[in-house]
Amino acid sequence: xxxxxISLKNLKIDTKLVQDFLFKQIKKxxxxxxxxxxxxxxxxxxxxxxxxxxxxxxIAINLKNNEIIASIAIREYDKNFKEFENLFSRFTTASIWxxxxxxxxxxxxxxxxxxxxxxxxxxxxNYSQIYLHTHKTLDGALEFWTSQHYNISIDTENxxxxxxxxxxxxxxNTALKYQSKISI
Length: 184
Hints:
Elements: E1 2-7, H1 15-30, H2 36-43, H3 45-50, E2 56-62, E3 67-76, E4 93-101, H4 110-124, E5 129-135, H5 141-147, E6 151-155, E7 162-168, E8 181-183
């Protein structure tokens, strides 16, 4: 199988197709649909990720049928978590959002390739670290992120089992370029 990882900034695609993919994945993983407090970035995909030079959104496409099979987004840190007050800044910290791989395509290395894309993009945009949060309720999520060298900064033990993670990318070697077309 051949897949291609593409920045939405470099692709003329109906954003509704991407939104449909994201909401389908959210329904599968979390069991619910659109929630205004959680999904404004999806509704405002262009404004959030494409109109800001320091943000981006990547998709993986199965070249055999042109189907979107995975996604990942990167943007300036914009959360107001009390625990991180004065610790993260939108100027130095990027945050990962919307990493989804359709279940039919998991365990093929696609997520790793997407993460490397956003790390390289972030380094090129002069971020020094990347923040993300995940949930222990998502099968394999915590293990995946630790395998990518993201460190737990806070394990909230809240009702959502949220884990906040961070990775220093200031020493990332940007000479390493990843191929956008991959054979799996």
